[in-house]
Design brief:
With 304 residues, the protein is α+β, with helices and mostly antiparallel strands. It is 32% helix and 13% strand. The protein is built from 13 helices and eleven strands. Strands 7-8-10-11 form a four-stranded antiparallel β-sheet, with no helix packed on it. It has a three-stranded mixed β-sheet with strand order 5-6-9. It has a two-stranded antiparallel sheet with strand order 1-2. It is globular.
Length: 304
């Protein structure tokens, strides 16, 4: 169907084309040129526009702050319709420290949104980074208590989101996954210790490898990622074509060891960007996925 014929079919009572009645394919093409903020407005404006706007909005979402990311997680975890629309998911550039430097609320304020003492505050009056300027938006501001107590670390570091998995029949899940996290509950300290399990990196890998249709994997600058994790992803996600693990495995890479009186360092061969085949070649069966490079008098020799 051409754009002209679609417009002719969508003529309204006043003789002008009506966007709501234009063919879905044409609306999708038009909306593909719009920024994320406009797509969100279209999603809320009319039921006749929401489907095409939602498909493009959730295909490869971008997040200004970790607060917006936390809101997104809550939405897709309670709506399979929106969750199934997500195709590209990139968090490599999100850091809580940058949010707070600009006065924006982060994922911590969203987690404790039901508790007035820790809830988000009014939008910041000015941004500090990259340079001071007046802020006229509506993004919630940071809670000063978190500014005093939180540590500055990227979202993808170590404990990931510092959340807890609640395993108790007293707290039924409303999410499509059937899981309940501490951030889902109004009071995170009311659960018994036996019902609480900290969310660890292997938890993320477990659910990542359950995405059997996954085609591209990019887990960059993840210090907690190991060779065993990479093997699990390649083994359990048969459709994966491209990977990017650059900068990952840093926890092991930074460890200094002494082997036979000589300084040694870990080399992470799988921390590359390339095809599935190229990455798999760095993980030979039966051998360690990290090798030890022994440095002595400017020379190196490698032991597996």
């Amino acid at each position: 169907m051409s754009l002209s014929s679609a417009a002719e079919e969508a003529i309204g009572p006043n003789g002008k084309p009506v966007l709501e009645t234009i063919a879905s394919e044409v609306k999708y093409h038009i909306f593909s040129y719009l920024p994320q903020e406009t797509l969100y407005c279209l999603l809320l404006s009319s039921p006749a526009l929401s489907e095409e706007a939602a498909i493009l909005l959730y295909h490869s979402p971008k997040f200004r702050t970790t607060y917006r990311f936390a809101q997104f997680v809550t939405t897709v975890s309670h709506s399979r319709r929106y969750a199934d629309m997500v195709r590209v998911f990139d968090l490599s550039d999100r850091k809580e420290a940058e949010d707070r430097a600009n006065g924006f609320a982060s994922w911590r304020e969203w987690k404790y949104r039901e508790i007035p003492l820790y809830a988000a505050q009014a939008p910041p009056k000015q941004l500090m980074e990259p340079k001071k300027k007046i802020y006229k938006g509506t993004h919630p501001g940071a809670n000063y208590l978190f500014n005093k107590t939180s540590v500055s670390m990227p979202l993808n570091f170590a404990a990931l989101t510092s959340d807890d998995l609640i395993e108790s029949l007293s707290y039924p899940s409303s999410a499509i996954s059937g899981l309940v996290f501490g951030s889902d509950l109004a009071r995170s300290w009311t659960q018994g210790s036996a019902d609480v399990e900290s969310v660890r990196p292997d938890f993320l890998i477990l659910y990542l490898t359950s995405l059997f249709k996954l085609e591209n994997v990019q887990v960059r600058n993840a210090p907690w990622l190991t060779g065993a994790d990479v093997q699990g992803i390649l083994r359990n996600c048969p459709r994966v074509k491209k990977v990017d693990f650059r900068g990952s495995g840093k926890l092991m890479r930074d460890q200094a060891l002494v082997v036979s009186g000589k300084t040694a360092k870990w080399e992470i061969h799988w921390a590359i960007k390339g095809s599935r085949k190229e990455c798999a070649a760095t993980l030979p069966a039966g051998l360690a996925s990290e090798s030890l490079a022994i440095v002595s008098n400017g020379s190196e020799r490698r032991n597996h």
